[in-house]
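Researcher: Next sequence.
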Amino acid sequence: MIPGFSNRRHFKDLTEQEILALAISSEEDDARIYRTYAARLRKEFPDTSKMFDGMAEEEDGHRRSLIELYKVRFGETILLIRREHVAGFYARNPVWLVENLGLDRIRDEVAGMESAACNFYLAAAKRTTDADTRKLLGDLAAAEAGHLAAADRLEQKLLTEDVRASEDERARRQLILTWVQPGLAGLMDGSVSTLAPIFATAFATHDTWTTFLVGLAASLGAGISMGFTEAASDDGTISGRGSPVKRGVASGVMTAIGGLGHALPYLITDFWTATSIAIIIVFFELWAIAWIQNKYMNTPFFRAAIQVVLGGGLVFAVGILIGNA
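Model: Next structure:
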C-alpha cells in the first residue's frame, strides 16, 4: 500500500448494495454490543440490563427488515462489508473500554451510538443526488432515529425514578468501595507517611538530590507495599468491595502520587526554593484528602481538614525535628 493512502473506501463511493450490506452488519454489531452490556449489568443492575436486552431486540428487528429488503433487491448473498472497511464511517468504541467505567458511562455510550448512526445517515443522504440512494439513506436515518425513540421508551418503562435512583446509588457505592476508599487510603498514606523521611533528609543534609532520591524510594516503595497489601487483604467475594486488582492499583498508584508530590520539588537544586514548593504542595495534598473525604465519605469538611492537617502537621514536625537533631 502506498504511504498516505488507505485501502478503505469512502462512503460516497459505495453502491446502494454495499450501503445496505454495511447497514446490516452494523445492526448485527450493535445488537451484540447491547447484549454484552446486558450480560455485564444483569447481576447488579437488572432493570438496566432488561433495557439493553430490549434494545438488542429492536436492532434484530431492523436487521431482519434490512435483510428482507436486500434479498428483494440484490439476492440471497449479502456482501461482506463492515464499518472498518469504510473511511469516515462512524466507529464504535471497544466494549472493554466502556463496560468498566460505570453505569452512566454505558448509558451515555449507548445514546452516542444511536445518535452517531442517525447523524451519519442524514449527512450521507444530503450528499447524494441519486433519488433511490437518497431514499435508502433517509430510510436508514429514520431507522436509527427510531432506535433512539425506542431506547427512550424502554428507559421510561423500565427505569422509573426510583429504580434509576436505586441503581445509581448502588453504582456510586461500588465506585466508593472499589476505587475511592483504597485510593483515599493510599493518598493519605503516601502524603502523610513520607513527610517525615523526606523532610528529615532535607533538613539533615540540605542536599536536594539526596532528598529527592529518598522521597522517590519512599514513595514508590510505599506504593508497591500498599498496592499488594490492599489486593491481598480481600478478594471482594464476601465484602462486595470489587476486584482486588482494581483496589490494589487504586491504592498503590495514589500512595505513590501522594509521596511524589512533595518529593519532585527537590529536583530543584536550590534547597530553600525546593523546600518552599514542597511545603506548598503538601498543603494542597492535605486539602485534596479533606475534599475527597467530604465529597465521598460525607465527612464534614472542617472536621476532615482538622484531622488531616493535625496528623500531617505532627508527622511534618517530627521530620523537621529529626532532621535538625
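Model: The chain has two domains: 9-159, 166-323. Confidence is low (pLDDT under 50) at residues 1-5.
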